Structures are given as C-alpha cells and as structure tokens.
Amino acid sequence: MTQKEKLVLVGNGMAGVNAVEHLLKLTPDKYEVTIFGTEPHPNYNRILLSYVLSGDSKVEDIVIHPYEWYVNNKITLYTNQTVTEIDTTAQTVSSDKGVTVSYDKLILATGSNPFMIPLPGADKEGVMAYRTIRDCEIMIESAKKYKKAIVIGGGLLGLEAARGFLNLGMKVDVVHIVDTIMERQLDRTASKMLQAALEEQGINFLLEKQSAEIIGDKRVTGLKFKDGTVAEADLIVMAVGIRPNVALAKNAGLDCNPGIIVNDYLQTSVPNVYAVGECAMHRGIAYGLVAPLYEQGAVLAKHLAGVETGPYEGSVLYTKLKVSGVDVFSGGKFGDEEGTKAIRIHDEFTGVYKKVVIKDNKIIGAVLFGDTADGTRLMQMIREETDVSGMAKTSILTDSEGGGGAASGVADMKDDAIICGCNGVTKGTICSAIKEQGLTSVEEVKNCTTASRSCGGCKPLVSDLLAFTLGSSYDKNAVKESICSCTDHTRDEVVEAIREKGLSHVREVMSVLNWKNEEGCSKCRPALNYYLGMVSPETYKDDSTSRFVNERMHANIQKDGTYSVVPRIYGGVTNPTELKRIAEVAEQFNVPTVKFTGGQRLDLLGVKKEDLTAMWEALDMPSGYAYGKALRTVKTCVGETFCRFGTGDSMAVGIELEKRFERLNTPAKVKLAVSGCPRNCAESGIKDLGVVSVDGGWELYAGGNGGVKVRVGDLLTTVKTEQEIIEYTEAYLQYYRETGKYGERTSEWVHRLGIEKIRDVVQNEEERKQLCARMDQALSVTKDPWKQAIESKKIQRDLYEVVELN
C-alpha cells in the first residue's frame, strides 16, 4: 500500500478548509491531512457572524464543517491551537500547545487580522474589533449592560455590526471618514439608497468624521472627533479594514509584501509551501471576498491532486449579498471613467437601482440595488467579455420577472459559474445534487449544497436551476415560505395562530410558536407587531420597540441626524392661513429647507430631534405619516371645480378618502389618487388605489405602481356615487390588510392573489359589509401620534430629549 503524503493546513477557516474539501473529492486517498485552528470551533461561515450577532442564527447554525466531517474524512483537527513556528528545512510545524507535526505539503490559510486604529484611548475597556465568534459573544454580553454603541467604519462589516446592535436593543452610530458608505462596493447613488434604508431601520450615520480620541477612564464613554465634537458610547467597535496575517510566514522566511506572495498555482517562495485566502498576495492583490478565495482553492486543490488545471489568473471582484435585509450587488469596474458609458435605471418608488458600465462594447461592471436577480448573469458577461454591440441596450438590464433576466439565463451558464458567492457553490454542483439526490425545493438544495444558506440572495437562481433541471415537475409555488429564518411558519400560519390561540404580544407569538431565535429579528418582529394589531385592533397595544426608527419617531431621519416633518395636507388642498402657519413655524425653528413633495405636500427638512414635539404643537396639524407603513397621500387634480374637462369633484373625494384612512396601518405604504376625468392628471392608474371620474360614475383601479417595475392598476370596479367609492375602498384596503404579507406593496399583492379573486371579494355585498365593519373597528382606535407625543412628557423624555455628554 502506497504511503500517504502528509498535508498540513494552518488555519481552519473558510478558504483553507474549502480547498481541502475539494482536494478530498478529487483524490480522497492521496493525503493524510492535519488541520490547526486558533479558534475553539470547527470551520464556520464568517460571513454569517452578523446573523449570530443580530440573533437570527446561533453559532451551531453557521458551522460549515461539523466535527463529524473531520472524523469521517480521517482529518486530524487541532482546535484552540496556534501554529507558532514553521521549520521549512525539516518541514515541520509547531503549535503553542507543544504539538509538532511534519509535512510533505503545507498550506498557509492564516487569514487576516482586523486593523485597529491607533487612537489615544484605544486600549480602554469596551474598544474591540469584530472578526470572530468570541467577538460576537462579547458584543452580545455587552448589550445586556450597555445601551449605546459606535461602529467606526462604514463598510460591509461595520454595517452588519451596527444592524446587530440594533437587534440587541442598543442605539448605534456608524462613523465613516468619507461621505458615502460601502464606497468600495457601491457607486454614490446605491450608497445613498442603502444609507436611507439603514437609517429607516434605526442606524445613525456620522459621515466625514475623523476620529481623534477615545475618551473615558477605565472604560470608554465616548469618541471625540477632530472637529471637536463628541459622540457618547459604552462600546466602540472598529471595522475599518483587515491586514493579511503574515507573522508566521515572515518568521519562516517566506516572501511577503504585504501578504504572502504566491504564483498562479498558489505556491510561495519556499518549496512545498502554499498560501490561500486573505493571507495570500497574488499579482499584487490580497482578496477579502469569499468567491475569489474559493476560486484560488479550486486551483490549489487540482494542483495538489495532480489534476490538470489552468492557472489562477486573478478574480473579477463582485459582491452579492443582503446588507441588513437589503439586496445589493456590485461587480467589476462600476465607476464612471473615461471611455465608458452607463445604462441606468433608478426607481425611487420601489427602491430599485441598476447600473451597467460598458467600454468598447463590453460590460466591465455593474451595480444593482434592491433587485439583484440579474447579478450572476451580468457577472458571466463581464468574465466572458461578451460583445453587447448587437444587443438592445435596454435589454441588458431586464426585469427578472419579465422573462429576460436570471430565470432565462441559467441554461446558458457554464457549470463552473458560481451561483452562491457566499459559499462558492457552482451551477454544476447544484444541478448534480438535484439529479443525484432527488432534490425538489430550494430548501433541500440549501441543506444539501449550502447554496442560499448565507445571505439568501441567490435563492431565485437556485429556483431557476431547479426548474431548468426538473422541467415541468418543479412547482416553485408549492414550496413553503416562512416569514423569516427565525421560524418555519408562514405568514398565514402565524396569523391563524394569533387568531385561534388569542395571542396578544410579540414575545408570546414567538414563544408559543417555538421561534428558533427567541429575540426575533428585524424582519419578523415588525411583521408580528403588524399582524397582532391587524387581528385585534381594539385590544392590541402597539410594540414600538418592534418598529423601525422612523415609525418610532414619527419623522423621517435624514443623513445628518436631523428629521423631516410632513404635516397632513388633505388631497393636496390647502389655504392661505395654513400656508402662513407652516411658513411661520419654519421660520420659528430655523428650518433650512422647505420642499414640495411628489404627493402634493410640504416637507420641512433639517429639523433637530429636540424641536420635533414643539414644532408639531406649533403647526397644530396632524401627522402626514410620511414615515409609516400606512396611507401616505391622496393625490388629486382640480377636477370639475376648476378644470373645463373635469367631470367629477376629485378634490372633495380625495379629501374625504384621506380623512377617512389617514392613520390606517397597512402591510406597506399606500398611496391613492383621484382624477376628475379620464385625462388622469393625478396619475390614478399607477397608484395602490386610483379613482377616475368617467361619464356616469367612477372607475377604481387596484395595485398600480410607478418606476422601473411599472404596473398599471387593474380595473377593480365601477361605481356611481362618492359614497360607494368610500365603501369599496374600505373593503379593498381591509382585504389587503388581512391577506397581504408585511412589507408587500399592493402591486405585488394583486399580482399574487389575482385581480379576479380580489374583485370577487369586494363586489360580494355580504363580504364587503363584513370587511367595512372590520375597517370601522380598526379606524375607531387610531390616534394622531404627534398629538400623543405633545401631550405625553414620558414620550418626550424617552424619544425626543437630547442627553448632553458631560
């Protein structure tokens, strides 16, 4: 029997173990493998640390290779041991626990170390990095004692840490030295959209701030900036970048600059020693993203197995993931440089932004925000330098639901195309697993291959591969979709349990339904809060802690930490007295900007938090709910009152609708419009509900939406009187409230249920009466949140008073 060669891997992380896993599949009997890991854990997915921090996952959930995998593959694993010496002459490695092992081949996968800014006071208690499971544990324990955190660094890691702190109940500031976040992965437009989305969740950004000193005695109490201002904090996390961990390699005499220098087969300057992952420097680049590290590992594994392989020639960088629930993608060179042209789609209504950069008739880069389904297809075109000169430029960025995007592109992808960038899973791996293991659902593919296990951004592509492989036998609609990763229960199951079991608060729902994460997450907690209020409007007490910051504060937070105030202006109709009052209040509180909104209202921008309640009192106007999942606006034209074409009193109808539903909580924001004639000047055809005056009555259109995913509303019904407009709108909105998923716009809801189903319900007289009665019940308990804050010293103290740092 041929004696096995000895392979030692230093580093039990994602890059190194992935290479070993590939190697064992290629040649399971060639090597006797030993692995050293500094952490006391088996190999885990570092990308998912943010899920552990936020409470969406437990440590065991993010383990990629459990201890059983090492045993089954006859791998000797030394955890909680750090290799401190390499003798390249004797070909041995030694650990801090006194273990010495010889090798024939050595792989260094020592990863990287977090960079800690050498600020005065950086050694104080409460200042830390965010890199390991232990770091997560410290942060979780700290959140039980302290309430305010600062994250230095507006990159991906910093944003994930900040989101985790919010879930732990802490207030958090993100400090960043430039004026845009994730500037290496996103262009300015996408960055600002991401910032707005995260601000809505509760993260406060302090941009263009240079840290000067960490203040406090033994423990940190705040961060002082070079401009002299101070932000208070009980905990400071630095997430400002990483440095290749090369101390071991340098001491062994390997060439490093600054990472361990490797060639196209990952060989170092010393024979039989290889390097892979964040510690490696290839052609002047040290990669910090997972996909390039897996590409390196695949080449290294084939080289060590003696299998013919092409060289590793570098990676086209791309990122496709969820940042705090928001889909983002970037790949290649997406900046606007000389000689490039860009195709852009920007939909402010649905929060979708797409940009493709073209040079010499080839796509060289792309940025996608909100809808990333086209990411893998675009990356394939970037890698293959596809000539797009013969393509209609608008077809390059297609709606993935329209048949031209990812769903229609998987058949053309090569088997080595990476579908899941987080876990390095290729199309070939997924298709083989579907065929060989008899997989029939995205969930089964995830459990078998780990594809879609991390951020979940590749789920649509996995579904497309199931359809491609299984053909007509695949039914994607039969797959059970839970409301989030904290539970296996669907939206309908949760609502049914609330009704049948009489559940009355968020934690009770999670307890009774055996939530995997007992604290819930930012996706399920707001949803549960809505469903409870929808089922029992008269008895349920709203849980403000389960709402995003804008809804808690009843004002939209701006990028500089100020707020915007949008009073209700019914139907967009006002009068001189009201306008004077708004102007006087704007002067009184030194409001820097006053802007007309697209919904025919006035937005007072730049208001200090401590001025909000006093300003609301001075305005003496109700909240316009510009921040909420509720009725936002009712847009109107002047109608028959003034217009020579008008056939209906659109202003009067719009005002009546807005006064009727102004404080109604809905699954997502709702916008209405009333047009006084079929010329449709109020854009009623692309609103959640649009009303159009026609000869002899009014037409009601349902499920409209503007922007890239333009959806013209479907005709719901035609009525004769203005009272019928109110009645049918009540039934329609209540049915949406009762059957819509939290966060689902009416355009998606109508598409999912079908206009025929919705029409049958609201046109049925008995069902309509019941829906209207339940709407009466829901509206009977609503109160103006601005007035409540004005009248409550406790609310003012808890939310709006500014605590000065001594």
From TrEMBL:
Cofactor: [4Fe-4S] cluster; [2Fe-2S] cluster; FAD; siroheme
Lineage: superkingdom: Bacteria
Listed pathway(s): Nitrogen metabolism; nitrate reduction (assimilation)
Keyword NADP among record annotations: no
EC number: 1.7.1.15
Name the record gives this protein: Nitrite reductase (NADH) large subunit
Start and end residues of each FAD/NAD(P)-binding domain: 6-282
Keywords linked to the UniProt accession: 2Fe-2S, 4Fe-4S, FAD, Flavoprotein, Heme, Iron, Iron-sulfur, Metal-binding, Nitrate assimilation, Oxidoreductase
Domain annotation BFD-like [2Fe-2S]-binding: ranges: 418-467, 483-532
Domain called Nitrite/sulphite reductase 4Fe-4S: residue spans: 628-768
Listed CDD domains: NirB_Fer2_BFD-like_1, NirB_Fer2_BFD-like_2
Organism: Paenibacillus aceris
Domain NADH-rubredoxin oxidoreductase C-terminal: 319-385
Family membership: Belongs to the nitrite and sulfite reductase 4Fe-4S domain family.
Group of enzyme by EC: oxidoreductase
Record domain Nitrite/Sulfite reductase ferredoxin-like: where: 558-620
GO MF annotations in UniProt: nitrite reductase (NADH) activity
